User: Which sequence fits this backbone?
């Protein structure tokens, strides 16, 4: 009797245990934690706008779109900011801070690589085919864009001389335990074009939301990168493809220049949305002043003069032409950039008429209705110079100036030398391609 | 699964019903002959050893014996063995009175582990026992506070992150859970500890080493605190009432030394001259400017005259907003605590019922909270004592009302009232010029009146906590017992935050979203009514344990105790947040708002969307464990203990076979005083103990797979509202449990007549496989990741000594607790920059190999430059003012390491004096061998018009000043590196060593009064004064080394304790 009861007890306990063990411990510890596997989960990773659509800003700080007074810059305590402003691109310029662009962009590359890896584990079927293709194309586009941003900041201008130079690590796998070697510059560029080419057939003409990849965006990015390499024919070919799809312009006459940010979020000119981070010293700071001569180069009937700028109570000119509705700058792909790429390429390839036709299309939307008189190449001694100056005027604070300056070096002398004036002290930047390369942050080397 | 479980339980119950017996029940108590106090742990058995038992915590025992004559013996360490002959013809009750062997040992302590209760004499592990008197010595709402300064080895941390308020023998983890496991009545408690009414607590046992804690396995790494609540006793009903009131000092807002108002305004004038404010004056964000700067601006713009400016500035100089805060916002906090306890029982049934009320008025006017607790505990012995049933019901309810929020970021010379006491607006988020320009536009009043905010809030929090316990114990044969323990716990927490238009924050939100229509009128996307935020959290847990225990008395002086069991735990919580706009409380209607579109903000034109306020969170914590524990006592003098436990948990993505961790411990005890060779009169008790074993810890925030956290994009983004995710941790196939290996030696002793008794222990704790940050090249996608890569080591000593100095009519007892600890991180791979180690930023940890986790480092200091007042450092052995180079050329190892930020030695010295019914006890606590960094002036804030430390007044101003000050001169412009050099130089590092008079308790026991006119058995009135202050400290710094921001308020409590 006694043993019988003991047995019952033991059997009961064991049976409870066995029943319970089955999947009791498989439940996940946090509701919002998940291994991304399905297509919509991978799409979610690529859709985290704050993380995936953030581009570089440090190149804008070092460009010549604005200036500070000596008083102001000396009151700043962020070494990364004031060194970038003064264009002192030395290895210790970031001081102790983790370099934000390097980390952010490689995180985007990791995410894209992870999605591409996970896609290999997901079978493409007739049902999921279009989604599968979209995620793959989007991931490839994301990776290519991130590499193009990295090269803009951390590499020299591509040329036959620099092609074999060691540039940045080319990471194509999401594996934290493998550290890739620094790759030759040419190899990184080839990878960008390979990714874009592979992405083209996978993506739709336009995406539902402009934070995502599309055929139009792939071509616009390819054109932007070819332009930075002075490959005008290729750039023109791609930009024409993009302009076939996206060519809507915003009529500046419909904007209210009295607003603090006349161009709100969701401009019809977006091809692909990318924004820059912010620094309190720069974004919406009245002490980030615009050069008076640049400001005066906008004609009185040019609406950009009031849409892009305002004169603050202290009498200084400030920028308010962000295409984001807030103080972050829009640095993505847009129709206005596409038209300017086309205009420049046509001009450089000798088709001056088409170039000006394209430029006039853009400018007409920027001028007060009925007052715009189209420009003609014959009006100018240096028509290309005019196009480039119009490029400067349109694409202010758009993250394009730094790579433009790199390619103008030795080509368009009017933009040089680059100077920072701190009262009596004038810091003049060296005129060599290497001078435009931001140092690779220390943490990349120490942890290899 | 639940259904199957219930069926099984039911089967089990039925199977037990058949119990029958042909034996009689012998019950009784074992008492001390002299005092009549019970002797828990005494061994009672027939001479033939056919069965035997151990007396429980009340000295009660029960034996089932065949009819006939038996010689029953009762024995206990230090007492003469007594044998009684009884003839059993029916159930019988007897009583043993054991006479002391002239050794006068103190009363017996029972150590509870949550699984077993072990008399101290048989324990091998490291236990600290707090009896009821000690638990009740301090007056507090919270039970945990009562452990402070009475528990050797346990310290309340006053530096370091807020998530580790207490440590038992240091911190053997870096990122995983840092807090001890809290056990209440056999099960880990999942709710917040403030839900436990201290009046319900009988004793607390703290488990410090592997042998004591390893029964709790993977959650025992930080030590275990076992709380045992009051149980009924099988005698006449007893009623006790405890009631007290505790009054706290109003916070002293003048405690922190800050720059004088004169200096503050002086700086503003200087900065205004330098055009520093231009960036803010013209900023489209309309940032707030101080009243003085606004006045200076008005004067510059010719709006006011110079005389008027000076008049205004002089008014500002005469004010101090801290007076207004003290007068209007603060009051003395008052806590009331009332409790009533009823317990009793008859033969087979015992009960304990307790009801408590705490009513606390906080020190901020308008904020208060109340706690209601009710507990009912029943115990039955059924089926001729074979079946024990215990039930417990514990209910707690909190009502917390927050009606006032303390205004933040108010300029120091603002005032809240005019001369007639009317509320005045003060500057807060926007400039006065902007606020004034909005008048008459049709917006809600955009002014911020601090006085009108008092009591205007309405945050109502209600928390209900329910704990249900069911214990079943069944004696299968003598010595073999099966038990099932079950606990259900649930906690429902609701917060409603009704933000009416009385609140500035509501009006501000509505105004910011106001849109100008083309016709000049305004529309309001956020409706002009209240905003209601609702947050509710529902958590529950099931804990189930099946256990078999075996106790066999082998001889009158030898016994074996073993338990083995299986345990399951399932904890889940889900929390949801909602927000309603345009809420009208009188009709209960809210309005939908457009959460999708972006609206231009009225003040700066930025596009923004209306905050959604919806959020869902869920947690699941599951454990499946098996455990075994055995202790063998031979000849009352040799103890051996063994313990093993295997825990498996729902670690995310870990392969099934790696989810579990086996943990174990072993211990030896030797009562030397029982050996014939040590037959010393003066040392009647001496015991040596040694244990070794492993405890575990887990960090559930890391995962073995590449995991992502999901969210929706913020509405103000282009892809607002879209599902988004980000990778939270990369793949880590080698993820495993953290383990803490502990070696412990202990020595217990007691001299004749218990004049001096105590315990001394030393230990070594090695944390291995700890989760730590490892650095990665950012090109991999991560610049650091958490892996099992770190280890720690702690060595220390804990001492607890009681001495009875005077034992006559005037009694004097001293208790000394003294602990030392030396901690270091022995392996750690992520290396930060020098500034990381110097600054130790909040929320981040930068351990350095070979140093304690919390350490103070500094840079060498070479005084001030006599010509400029610049701080001087040392670079490559030379004096240098190149601060940037000093930082870049110093490696973390080159920094001066002073020592830990947490005390390496601490303790308390408590003296208790008794005369007739009067008892006076005072606790003096001390902390030593640690460092802190003194605050001083930072010109980065001064030169931005944000004020700073009072050291500003002592700064170097002219050559010669360096003779009596170490405070650098003010630089011409902001120089962060120079500030950082001074801030982290050795000149600001101080020793924290100090002694403080922690508290005094004075009580009078009325029951000793000869006249028996009083209607109660015992009555005590008491008063308790806490946080009396520092007696001595090593540093000259006038601010308390442990409380840099605000002193803990002094408090005085008065109360009465009645027993009927």
Assistant:
């Amino acid at each position: 009797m006694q043993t019988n009861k003991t047995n019952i007890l033991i059997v009961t306990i064991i049976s409870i245990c066995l029943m319970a063990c089955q999947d009791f411990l498989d439940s996940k510890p946090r509701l919002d934690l998940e291994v991304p596997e399905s297509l919509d989960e991978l799409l979610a990773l690529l859709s985290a706008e704050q993380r995936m659509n953030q581009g570089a800003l440090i190149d804008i700080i070092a460009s010549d779109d604005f200036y500070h007074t000596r008083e102001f810059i000396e009151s700043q305590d962020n070494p990364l900011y004031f060194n970038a402003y003064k264009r002192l691109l030395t290895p210790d310029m970031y001081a102790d801070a983790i370099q934000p662009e390097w980390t952010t962009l490689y995180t985007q590359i990791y995410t894209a690589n992870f999605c591409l890896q996970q896609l290999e584990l997901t079978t493409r079927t007739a049902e999921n085919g279009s989604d599968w293709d979209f995620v793959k194309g989007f991931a490839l586009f994301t990776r290519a864009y991130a590499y193009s941003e990295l090269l803009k900041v951390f590499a020299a201008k591509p040329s036959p001389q620099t092609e074999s130079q060691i540039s940045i690590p080319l990471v194509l796998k999401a594996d934290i335990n493998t550290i890739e070697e620094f790759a030759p510059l040419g190899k990184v560029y080839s990878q960008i074009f390979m990714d874009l080419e592979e992405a083209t057939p996978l993506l739709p003409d336009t995406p539902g939301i402009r934070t995502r990849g599309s055929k139009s965006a792939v071509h616009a990015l390819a054109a932007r990168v070819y332009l930075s390499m002075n490959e005008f024919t290729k750039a023109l070919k791609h930009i024409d493809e993009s302009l076939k799809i996206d060519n809507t312009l915003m009529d500046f006459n419909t904007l209210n220049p009295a607003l603090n940010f006349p161009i709100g979020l969701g401009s019809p000119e977006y091809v692909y949305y990318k924004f820059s981070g912010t620094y309190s010293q720069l974004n919406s700071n009245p002490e980030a002043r615009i050069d008076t001569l640049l400001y005066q180069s906008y004609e009185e009937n040019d609406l950009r003069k009031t849409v892009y700028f305002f004169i603050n109570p202290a009498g200084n000119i400030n920028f308010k032409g962000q295409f984001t509705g807030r103080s972050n700058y829009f640095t993505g792909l847009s129709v206005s950039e596409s038209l300017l790429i086309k205009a420049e390429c046509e001009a450089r390839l000798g088709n001056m008429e088409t170039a000006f036709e394209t430029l006039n299309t853009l400018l007409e939307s920027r001028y007060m209705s009925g007052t715009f008189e189209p420009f003609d190449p014959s009006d100018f001694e240096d028509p290309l110079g005019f196009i480039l100056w119009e490029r400067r005027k349109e694409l202010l604070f758009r993250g394009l100036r730094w790579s433009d300056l790199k390619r103008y070096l030795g080509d368009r002398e009017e933009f040089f030398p680059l100077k920072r004036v701190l009262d009596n002290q004038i810091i003049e930047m060296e005129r060599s391609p290497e001078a435009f390369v931001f140092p690779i942050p220390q943490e990349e080397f120490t942890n290899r | 699964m639940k259904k199957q479980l219930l069926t099984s339980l039911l089967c089990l119950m039925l199977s037990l019903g058949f119990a029958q017996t042909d034996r009689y029940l012998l019950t009784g108590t074992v008492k001390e002959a002299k005092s009549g106090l019970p002797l828990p742990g005494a061994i009672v058995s027939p001479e033939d050893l056919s069965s035997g038992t151990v007396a429980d915590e009340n000295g009660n025992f029960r034996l089932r014996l065949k009819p006939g004559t038996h010689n029953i013996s009762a024995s206990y360490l230090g007492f003469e063995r007594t044998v009684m002959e009884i003839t059993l013809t029916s159930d019988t009750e007897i009583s043993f009175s054991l006479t002391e062997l002239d050794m006068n040992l103190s009363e017996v302590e029972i150590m509870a582990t949550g699984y077993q209760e072990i008399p101290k004499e048989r324990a091998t592990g490291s236990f600290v026992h707090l009896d009821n008197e000690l638990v009740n010595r301090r007056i507090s709402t919270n039970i945990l506070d009562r452990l402070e300064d009475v528990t050797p080895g346990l310290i309340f941390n006053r530096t370091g992150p807020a998530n580790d308020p207490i440590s038992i023998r240091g911190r053997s983890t870096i990122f995983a859970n840092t807090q001890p496991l809290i056990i209440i009545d056999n099960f880990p408690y999942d709710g917040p500890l403030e839900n436990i009414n201290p009046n319900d607590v009988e004793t607390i046992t703290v488990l410090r080493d592997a042998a004591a804690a390893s029964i709790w396995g993977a959650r025992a790494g930080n030590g275990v605190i076992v709380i045992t609540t009051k149980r009924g006793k099988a005698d006449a009903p007893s009623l006790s009432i405890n009631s007290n009131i505790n009054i706290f000092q109003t916070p002293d807002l003048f405690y922190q030394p800050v720059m004088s108002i004169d200096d503050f305004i002086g700086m503003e004038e200087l900065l205004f001259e330098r055009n520093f404010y231009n960036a803010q004056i013209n900023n489209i964000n309309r940032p707030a400017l101080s009243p003085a700067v606004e006045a200076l601006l008005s004067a510059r713009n010719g709006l006011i005259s110079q005389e008027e400016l000076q008049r205004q500035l002089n008014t500002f100089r005469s004010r101090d907003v801290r007076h207004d805060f003290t007068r209007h916002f603060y009051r003395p906090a008052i806590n009331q605590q009332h409790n009533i306890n009823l317990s009793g029982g008859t033969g087979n049934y015992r009960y304990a019922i307790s009801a408590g009320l705490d009513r606390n008025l906080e020190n901020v006017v308008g904020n208060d909270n109340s706690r209601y607790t009710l507990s009912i505990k029943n115990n039955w012995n059924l089926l001729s004592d074979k079946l024990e049933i215990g039930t417990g019901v514990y209910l707690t309810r909190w009502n917390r009302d927050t009606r006032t929020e303390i205004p933040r970021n108010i300029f120091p010379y603002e005032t809240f009232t005019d001369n007639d006491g009317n509320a005045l607006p003060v500057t807060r988020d926007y400039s006065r010029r902007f606020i004034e320009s909005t008048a008459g536009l049709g917006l809600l009043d955009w002014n911020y009146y601090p006085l009108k905010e008092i009591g205007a809030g309405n945050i109502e929090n209600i928390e209900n906590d329910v704990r249900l316990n069911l214990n079943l114990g069944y004696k299968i044969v003598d010595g073999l017992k099966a038990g099932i323990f079950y606990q259900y716990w649930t906690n429902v927490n609701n917060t409603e935050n009704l933000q009416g238009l009385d609140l500035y924050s509501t009006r501000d939100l509505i105004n910011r979203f106001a849109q100008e229509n083309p016709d000049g009128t305004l529309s309001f996307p956020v409706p002009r009514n209240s905003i209601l935020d609702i947050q509710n959290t529902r958590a529950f847990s099931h804990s189930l344990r099946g256990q078999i225990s075996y106790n066999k008395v082998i001889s009158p002086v030898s016994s074996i105790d073993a338990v083995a069991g299986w345990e399951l735990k399932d904890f889940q919580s889900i929390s949801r947040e909602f927000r309603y706009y345009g809420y009208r409380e009188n009709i209960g209607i809210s309005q939908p708002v457009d959460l999708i579109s972006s609206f231009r903000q009225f003040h700066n034109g930025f596009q923004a969307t209306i905050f959604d306020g919806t959020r869902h969170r869920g947690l699941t914590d599951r454990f499946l464990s098996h455990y075994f524990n055995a202790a063998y006592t031979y000849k009352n003098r040799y103890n051996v203990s063994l313990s093993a436990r295997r825990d498996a948990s729902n670690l995310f993505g870990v392969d099934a076979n790696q989810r579990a961790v086996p943990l174990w411990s072993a211990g030896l005890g030797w009562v030397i005083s029982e050996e014939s060779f040590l037959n010393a009169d003066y040392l009647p008790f001496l015991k040596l103990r040694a244990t070794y074993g492993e405890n575990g810890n887990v960090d559930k925030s890391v995962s073995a797979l590449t995991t992502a956290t999901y969210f929706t994009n913020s509405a103000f983004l282009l892809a607002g509202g879209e599902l988004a995710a980000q990778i939270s941790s990369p793949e880590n196939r080698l993820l495993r449990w953290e383990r803490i290996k502990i070696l412990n030696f202990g020595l217990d002793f007691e001299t004749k007549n218990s004049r001096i008794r105590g315990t001394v222990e030393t230990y070594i704790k090695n944390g291995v496989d700890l989760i730590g940050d490892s650095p990665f090249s950012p090109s991999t996608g991560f610049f650091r990741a958490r892996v099992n890569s770190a280890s720690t080591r702690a060595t220390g000593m804990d001492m607890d000594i009681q001495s009875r100095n005077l034992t006559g009519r005037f009694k004097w007892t001293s208790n000394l607790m003294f602990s030392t600890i030396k901690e270091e991180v022995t392996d750690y791979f992520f290396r930060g920059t020098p500034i990381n180690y110097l600054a130790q930023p909040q929320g981040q940890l930068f351990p350095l190999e070979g140093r304690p986790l919390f350490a103070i480092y500094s840079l060498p200091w070479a005084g001030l430059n006599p010509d400029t007042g610049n701080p001087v450092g040392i670079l490559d052995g030379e004096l240098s003012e190149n601060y940037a180079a000093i930082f870049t050329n110093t490696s973390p190892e080159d920094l001066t390491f002073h020592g830990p930020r947490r005390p390496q030695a601490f303790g308390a010295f408590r003296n208790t004096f008794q005369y007739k019914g009067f008892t006076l006890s005072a606790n003096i606590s001390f902390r030593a061998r640690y460092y802190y960094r003194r605050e001083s002036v930072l010109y980065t804030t001064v030169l931005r018009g944000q004020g700073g430390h009072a050291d500003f007044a002592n700064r170097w101003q002219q050559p010669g000043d360096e003779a009596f000050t170490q405070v650098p001169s003010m630089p011409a412009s902001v120089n962060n590196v120079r500030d950082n050099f001074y801030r982290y130089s050795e000149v600001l590092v101080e020793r924290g060593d100090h002694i403080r008079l922690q508290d005094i308790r004075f009580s009078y026991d009325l029951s000793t009064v000869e006249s028996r006119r009083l209607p109660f058995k015992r009555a005590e009135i008491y008063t308790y004064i806490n946080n009396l202050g520092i007696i001595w400290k090593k540093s000259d710094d006038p601010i308390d080394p442990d409380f840099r921001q605000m002193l803990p308020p002094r408090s005085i409590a008065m109360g009465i304790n009645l027993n009927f």
